[in-house]
Amino acid sequence: MNPARNPAPRALATPLVHLASEPYYHATGDELEVFAAAANSRLPVMLKGPTGCGKTRFVEHMAWRLKRPLVTVACHDDLTTADLVGRYLIVGDETVWMDGPLTAAVRAGAICYLDEIVEARKDTTVVIHPLTDSRRALPVEKRGEYIEAPPDFMLVISYNPGYQSVLKEMKPSTRQRFVALDFDYPEAETEARIVAHEGGVDDETAKRLVKLGGLTRKLKGAGLDEGAGTRLLVHAAQLIASGMSPAIACTAAIARPLADETDTRDALDDLIRAVF
Amino acid sequence: MSERKLFAHELEARLDELLLLSLRQRSAAEPAALLEALPRQLQERVLHWAGVAAQTSDDLGWLIASRAAEQAASLGGRLDDWARAGLDAYDRSGLAATRRALNDFAAAHQAGVFESQEGVAFGAIEGRLSRFLHALEGRPLKLVSGPKAWTDSETLWLPERIDAAPDAAGNRRLYKAIAALLWAQTRFGTFNVDPEPELAQWPAPEAALRWFALFEAMRLEACLARELPGLAADIAGLRGPWPAQLASTAAALAQAAATAADSLACLAELRRVGAGETPNFPHVGALDPLAARRVRAVRIARDTATLRQALNLLRAVDPSAGGQDHPDYPPLAAEGQTQHVDPQAEFLALPPPAREAARSLQQDLGEIPPEVLQAAGPGAWQPVDGVDSSAAVGVTTQPDAFYDEWDYRRAAWRHGWCHLYEMRAPVGDHAWVDEVRRRHAHLIRSIRRRFEALRGEDKPQRRQFDGEEIDLDAQVEARADRKSGTEPSPRLFIHRRRIERSLAVMFMVDMSGSTKVWVNDAERESLVLLCEAIEALGDSYAIYGFSGWTRTHCDIYPVKRFSDRYDAATRSRIAGIEARDYTRMGVAVRHLSGLLARQNTRHKLLVTLSDGRPDDYGDEYRGRYGIEDTRRALLEAREKGIRSYCVTIDRHGADYLPQLYGPAHYAVIDDARKLPQKIAEIYRKLTG
């Protein structure tokens, strides 16, 4: 096949990300050790925690630390098995097999990170089963291929137990295949350091942002489904760093994304005003 | 609605219908004659409020209707606030108080107190303020309206209405400032000193108290400035600069080390130099240290007992912590939290209620007194066994079932402990449901629309053997397969069909006595809206009420069984839901989850609508026992594949609900009246 004549598959190929520089991550417990040990023992890992508390960043950091390529898949409710494993495409008058992200990761011995796995269709979670037990293999039915995973391949999934839908619970048969790590918002001091570093703001501003984040988290269940995650705080910090006034930045990056309801929105505005 | 005024005979007929006057031998002729003169819009408002009030009680309806007839003309646009004030007073203290509240309101209105349109009513800002306070650190405070602004360190009273600033925004800011400073009183130790000896030396203690409140406001504003600088700046902007003679005092009290004792010292100093006219600052609430310190003392005693009890249990379980052996007290229910030696780790190991108590003590006393931390003798905590009054209640018929109950103190079951009766659900007024459906017609329409979308009727299923449309992706793949020599899949079509949700939901409705009046109305209204919503969705659902009076009288009222349709009979049973006795929850959860488990669906969901924690007559079930038993029952349900969720209007629910239902499986509605609007949304989120 002439790649110049058929550029399409190339553009669609799964990008294997080799992280050259260290992604910033601040450890809050023994997650680095546990993850490294799981990687060493070739066990799959599950990350649990609220939105925006650093799960994705942690995986990036570990990929860099373990010097393995990383494949990230954001799961959504239309994600099919073929989207993960791969499919045939027609290019010109020929058929070309295109590895899906999961297959590509298995072949390359990469870390495959399935973000928000509960969002994916139920049948897709089944294809990962053989990869998560002693078989450590991926059957590719379409091609009649059975790919044994190299030692460096590692499967990581994440999910947010805060989701309230009963229809989006993970089955025990899936859960029980993973080493699990609980994530939560970091301690105030640590979080302030993270916000200052990532958002490019001074320590005082970072501290106030973290204070605001803490206040919104107390509203969980009393107006909010979830308080502001570290990510939202970093977003606000970035807006502030680009020259916006703190109040406007926080309203835009924190209050508005969190709430639609008038009372809660007004209360969030009051909190922002109170902190800045 | 036509703009034509209603004539007296029409008004009379409407009132008669709303209030069932003919049955009570009252005549609406007189109020109707008075109402005839009003514009149509105002007439409708009066009828509306009469109807709302009549749902609570006929007498209340009559009172509102007859008084409104006299006062509506002068009240004008304030009629709604007037009626709300009346209903509020009824909820608190009954009919006589309502009459007084209505008259007071009308008199105040006449006197021109409420002239400005820019004034802000408590009701309009309550939701926003309560969330704001909830987010701040420290013990949760209950927010209510009252004649003056003050706090007893657990409840925060704010004025009914503020109309001091020229614009509404300013009045809202003033509300916030008052509330924040009162919150700060509880947070920064205003009640940690006893001002009585100083106050006693003043000729006019009331004036002294107002000075003390002012000094504290100066100190607390500075405390706020350290944690919430924006809020402090807001307050400073409201009050303007301190008068010159007070500026130095304010500066001294603004120091980080200043405490309530320093404010008291300022007060003593003032007594020596002689106080002039007490300056009046609208943002400074009143102080009642006597009442607050009483509440505080009770709380400290309670928190100390809770904490000591938890620590004793902890040490009993873990001998390394230096306590003595307590074979009677089993490990705490909180899992995996028993390994600890040093006091710091020990606090982390405490169950949430004890940790809450520790935090509360720290807030009250600045630290946890060492005597609490020392291992107390075995007599430090006496379990109080509830009085078993079961013998007092005569049992006439055989119970429908017996259920075991979990006794956490014994760490054992009490076998066949609860006697469950399936009662016949009382039948209520069918017209009430029609009225609710009429009143919420718009809401119901929008809920139905949204829920029909959720039904997924039109969800296309790809890669089917046959269907209405060609699946292009599948076609391309098949062609590719054929080219590459593998066998192409014959599944080439898109079929649109309804996806089976396969969900059964059981609604467990709290019918305890505490749900009277608003809550009960809100509960029933919510159920009507829920039924409308779920009918659109096609899920299988049932509604059961529960109530009880001791373990020998646990009653279950089937309002709608899974097999019942949502018809007129079911609707009248919803209307018939009424407040009864107590909330023995564990047995209800066990019985209803048993019924739910028999449903042949993939997902099963148990939703509790309640207004508070588990409770029953006598001391036994109240508190920890009830919570542990309910938790146990919910765990059992979980083992049967049933998920539970709780919707409550108990603002303090956040204390114990995470323990019962798990962190994400409950919702707290801060105002019962909002329940009907919110319930459908909660259900949609829960099952979407």
Decide which structural class fits the backbone of chain A: alpha/beta
pLDDT below 50 for ≥5 consecutive residues: which ranges of chain B?
321-343, 375-396
CATH H level of the largest domain in chain B: which superfamily?
von Willebrand factor, type A domain
Report the span from N to C terminus of chain B: 37 Å
Main beta sheet strand tally, sense and closure of chain B: 8 strands, mixed
The CATH C-level class name of the largest domain in chain B: Alpha Beta
CATH superfamily of the largest domain in chain A: P-loop containing nucleotide triphosphate hydrolases
Order of helices and strands of chain A: HHEHEHEEHEHHEEEHEHHHHH
Oligomer: heterodimer
How many helix segments of chain A? 13
Largest interface: A-B, 43 and 45 residues
CATH architectural label of the largest domain in chain A:
3-Layer(aba) Sandwich
Quick one: overall form of chain A?
elongated
The class by helix and strand makeup of chain B works out as alpha/beta
Write the CATH fold name of the largest domain in chain B: Rossmann fold
Q: Describe it for me?
A:
The complex is a heterodimer of chains A (276) and B (688). Chain A is α/β, with parallel strands linked by helices and 276 residues long. Helices cover 43% and strands 16% of the residues of chain A. Chain A has 13 helices and 9 strands. Chain A has a 5-stranded parallel β-sheet, with helices on both faces. In chain A, a hairpin with a 4-residue loop joins β6 and β7. In chain A, α12 (246-258) runs antiparallel to α13. Chain A starts with 7 loop residues before the first helix and ends with a helix. Chain B has 688 residues and is α/β, with parallel strands linked by helices. Chain B folds into 5 domains: 8-110, no CATH class; 136-287, no CATH class; 291-378, no CATH class; 430-452 and 500-687, von Willebrand factor, type A domain (Rossmann fold, 3-Layer(aba) Sandwich), CATH 3.40.50; 460-496, no CATH class. Helices cover 51% and strands 13% of the residues of chain B. Chain B is built from 26 helices and 16 strands. Chain B has an 8-stranded mixed β-sheet, sandwiched between helices. In chain B, a hairpin with a 3-residue loop joins β3 and β4. In chain B, α5 runs antiparallel to α6. The longest helix of chain B has 29 residues, at 289-317. Chain B is globular. Chain B starts with 7 loop residues before the first helix and ends with a helix. At the A-B interface, β3, β4, α10 and α13 of A face α7, α11, α20, β16 and α26 of B.
